[in-house]
Amino acid sequence: MEEELQNRKKKLYSTIKKGKLIWIAIALILIAYFGFWIRTQNLPLLKDVTNNEYIPMELDSFVILRYAEYYNEHGKLMENDKMRYYPTGFDPRKEFSFMAWFISTLYNILHFFNKSITIQLADVVYPPVAFVLGIIFFFLLVNSLFNYKIALVASYLLTVSPIFLQRTIAGFSDKEAIATAIIFMSLYFFVISWKTNKVWKVILFSFLSGLTTAMSMLAWGGGNIVTFIIGAFMLTEVFLNQLSKKDFYRNSIYFITSFTILSFITNKYPIKELASSLTTTITIFGFVAGIVYYLIYYKNIFKLKDKFENKLPIGVVSIILSGILGLIATSILVSPLFLIDKIKDIIQLAVNPFGRSRWALTVAESMQPYFVDWISNIGKFFVYIFIFGSILLFYETVKKLKYKYYLTIAYTIFIFAFIMSRYSNSSLLNGTNTISIILYLGSLLVFSLLIIYLYIKSFYKDKEEYNKFVAIDKVHLFMIVWFLFMVVAARGAIRVLYIFAPVIVILSSFLIVRSLDYSLLLKKFYLKIIGVLIIILILFIPNIQGNIYAYTVSTVNQAKFTGPLYHQQWQLTGQWIRENTPEDAVFAHWWDYGYWVQGGGKRATITDGGNAVGALNYFMGRYVLMGNTEEEALRFLKARNATHLLIVSDEIGKYPAFSAIGSDENYDRFSWLSTFALDPANTQETRDNIVLIYTGSYPFDDDFVYNGKLFPRRSSGVGAILLPIAKKDNSTQLDLNNLEIRQPTAVVIYNGQQTNIPLECIFIKDKEIVFNEKGVSGCLRLIPTIDRNGQTNPIGAGIYVSPDVRKTLFTKLYLYGLESQYFKVAYDDSSRMPLSVFDGNLIGPMKIWEISYPEKLDIPEFKYYIEDRLPDPNVTKVNLDFY
Questions:
Q1: What confidence score (pLDDT) does residue 481 get?
Q2: Which of 132, 589, 626, 782 has the fewest CB atoms nearer than 10 Å to its CB?
Q3: Is 480 exposed, middle or buried (0-12, 13-18, 19+ CB in 10 A)?
Q4: In this structure, are residues 124 and 68 in contact, taking their beta carbons and an 8 Å threshold?
Q5: Are 330 and 341 in contact (CB under 8 A)?
Q6: For 362, how many CA atoms within 13 A lie in the half-sphere containing its CB?
Q7: What are phi and psi of 649, to 5 degrees?
Q8: CA distance linking residue 580 with residue 661, whole number of Å
Q9: Four-residue CA torsion sign, 110, 114, 119, 122
Q10: What angle do CA 180, 69, 606 make, to 5 degrees?
């Protein structure tokens, strides 16, 4: 009878367990479905009005679609893509083969079941499909690290995270979506490989982890975050004497698999490149340290274990010996300065992970975020939730140690100092000054030395404490390594907040679930209920900004209205290019628009968003957009066989970007444009004139001297412009179609004092009016303002053009629209989109000029123009004093 009862209990337990798994699976399916639904809400917006075809949402996705189309037709990519960097071209096979194959394969699968699906539709829905795949493996990863409760909460939070939505929404068909899914696979397989005890599973999952690591790097360069995380974890295992034989075999299989695929099978990353890249060097060093540890600890090679086991932890000995061996090997095989260069790289990685060049500073997604940017992108609620989640995780990591409270306090101080050392641009902690760098690197160094000191001290004086160090949970170590690396990366570039999101939601979910668990441990039942209710209210009450409820609402609304950056104005321009230019036409423009001209206009370009030939951006900025003569522009354009020039209104806002990139070492052509708005309420009237007042702000781009007084660049500038217009027959009403303009006055502000100085130029009605009295030699280019009701004021605003900008080809052709012998306007949509201020926003036309060349045009700089060479490498250096 008792045996039967036991059997029934076992059956009941088995049934409950199976039922629990079913409910978990249902919950995960609902989360995945909800995420897919959210990410496809914008599909109706992703259509080209000129041909009704689906189009990607952003820039880089256009080139991936073009390659997917080519791959689908030819079964491989071309050896040389002549549409890029014409006439030299570009070999896309290493960088784009994986993505082209993936989208082509996805299309063929979907098309097999539904013949109406086009490759363009497959391309735009690929990110939501990748999201579903990714969220499944993300759940499995978090479940293997913690439990299903934390995994489900984290999966939902990642699904509704606004910063994770951007690159997984329909149309954002860049590399990150599928690479992220594969990264989750790689980390999951790696975690499973150390948790399993069966040899065949260790071999299988280690191989799969190495395979998927290689795949993630083939898909996206950012996939190397896996190698860094796993490499740093390998080193941590060695340091804490946690490397078992099984761990060594796992690491060996992982390393050999991933590096063999990357270097020898696909040849995308030659072994020398992997050895010199910091993110993969850490993996190589971790693997080598593991080999040394294995030989000493398990094989007692040269009796080293006997010599050192009572003097230093074998892991520390192994890391020291590996460092010495690595120093000798790299000095012989690479360079005697290799180690010094790597130390510099480590400091660079910590301070600025994505480098600092003029180009990097002009790319919005490469800009270094401040802590306040974290708050604006992630939300204050979750920023502090994940920080405190990391503190709780650290406490649970060290809670068995003697100094657990001191260590937790030290970690708390460290993590706040580490993160907030770059608080805001205007604060004392701006991330670039000495105190910020000391706080940032110093907090990391001091905390690391504290851990090392306590670890070594326990080895000598307290073996019981030492054994507790050795027994620290690997799961917690893995998460801390992952978290700290992503903090460094997310501090370096705003685009990394996307891949920081998984860590954020894991630590937030860890804190949320642990808080619920602690509440349920309270002795009094009513206290349990109160604790749970408080947590639920905090997470879901609508009034708290940035909580789960707010995240969900924000993400759904964001998805519904996220249309393509290749908007209708661009779509119509693309149609004109396809239908009105020769198929062998070559377009010159600023690099941002290359993929759109190639994909939407089906024409070759000189520059594009890949920036694989960086010198072209310098030449395009300096000699074309900022060219002081047509001849210097034509020399570069002729060298690259350009037939058309495209300029759009975005260049007004991007002027600081291309003028920085196109300047010499001393920023000789660096400048910017500012908009001034008419202030009707302060219009003044004199006996002969009506004085219009335009207000704005233009810091001088160069030092300016007037009547012996110096007005320094940046710290002084134009705050207003007074424009006198002659009265007609003593009337106070202006005839806007027949204005008699008199010399304006620039109100120059310096140290809080105003000085009225004559402004030498006004541009109105396609005519530049230059006045005789000398003063500020800039020019106010008057433009109309248009309100929501369609009411227009033809002189409602103006663009201030500095003396340096006045003489550029950009001003002559685009801002002024003047005639040119060698640049003939072929396309101008000013009738639909005039250069004006519409409802407070600057808008303007897209213009295309057909280029002709003089019969005799010498190009002495030809060797630079046709190669990726700069006449002076120093032009890429950043001088923050100019910003």
A1: 95
A2: 132
A3: buried
A4: no
A5: no
A6: 26
A7: -65, -20
A8: 32
A9: negative
A10: 90
C-alpha count within 13 angstroms, C-beta hemisphere, residue 410: 17
Q: Where are the alpha helices (DSSP H) in 565-700?
A: 568-580, 594-599, 615-619, 630-639, 650-661
Instruction: Give CA–CA dist 524/27, Å, rounded.
Output: 31
Smallest CA-to-CA distance from 219 within 323, 60, 97, 350 is with 97
Token representation of residue 251: 């690491």
Specify whether the CB–CB gap between 134 and 181 falls below 8 A: yes
CATH architecture for the domain at 567-665+819-833+846-883 = 3-Layer(aba) Sandwich (3.40)
Residues contacting 132, CB < 8 A, separation 6+:
32, 35, 36
Share of the chain above pLDDT 90, in %: 73
Cis amide bond preceding 87, omega within 30: yes
Give the residue among 501, 499, 491 at the shortest CA–CA distance from 382: 501
**% of the chain surpassing 70 pLDDT:** 93
What stretches of 172-308 show up as alpha helix (H) in DSSP? 176-195, 199-219, 225-239, 245-260, 271-276, 278-293, 304-308
CB atoms < 10 A from the CB of 192, how many?
A: 19
- Please report, for the chain, the start and end positions of each structural domain, with discontinuous segments joined by +: 1-174, 197-351, 369-521, 567-665+819-833+846-883, 674-801
Q: Give the 3-state secondary structure of residue 763.
A: strand
Q: Note the helical H segments in 732-829.
A: 803-806, 809-810
Question: Peptide bond preceding 744: is omega within 30 degrees of 0, i.e. cis?
Answer: no
Cα–Cα–Cα angle for 312, 316, 317, rounded to 5 degrees = 70
Point out which residues pair with 798 in neighbouring strands.
676, 782
Residue type, 451: I
Q: Dump pLDDT digits (tens) for 777-790.
A: 999 999 999 998 88
Burial of 6 (0-12, 13-18, 19+ CB in 10 A): exposed
With cut-offs at 50, 70 and 90, classify the pLDDT of residue 662. very high
> What's phi and psi for 706, nearest 5 deg?
-140, 125
Beta-carbon contacts of residue 604 (< 8 Å; ≥ 6 apart)? 82, 83, 84, 86, 584, 585, 586, 587, 598
Amino acid at 836: S
Backbone angles phi, psi at 674, to 5 degrees: -130, 145
Residues contacting residue 404 through CB under 8 Å, at least 6 positions apart = 395, 398
In sign, the C-alpha dihedral spanning 56, 59, 64, 66 is positive
pTM of the model: 0.92
- Separation of alpha carbons 292 and 286, rounded Å: 10
Question: What per-residue confidence (pLDDT) applies to 544?
Answer: 66
* 744, 723 contact by CB (below 8 A): yes
Per-residue CA distances from 84 to 80, 218, 577, 599, 604 (Å): 9, 21, 16, 11, 6
Measure the N-to-C terminal CA separation of the chain; round to a whole number of Å: 85
Q: What is the DSSP string of 4-57?
A: HHHHHHHHHHHHHHHHHHHHHHHHHHHHHHHHHHHHTTTGGG-B-TTT--B--S
pLDDT digits (tens, 9 = 90+) for 135-158: 999 999 999 999 999 999 999 999
Q: How far is CA 727 from CA 694, 721, 760, 768, 881, in A?
A: 19, 19, 21, 21, 46
Give φ, ψ of 749 to 5 degrees: -115, 130
Q: Which of 567, 720, 767 is nearest to 649 (CA)?
A: 567
DSSP for 105-119 reads: HHHHHHHHH-TT--H
CA dist list (Å): 854 to 259, 499, 535, 730, 823: 54, 51, 75, 53, 11
User: What's CA 440's distance to the chain center, in Å?
Assistant: 21
CA distance 620 to 185: 42
Residue 520's pLDDT band, with cuts at 50, 70 and 90, is confident
Average pLDDT, the chain: 91
Spatial separation of the C-alpha atoms in residues 132 and 143, rounded to whole Å: 17
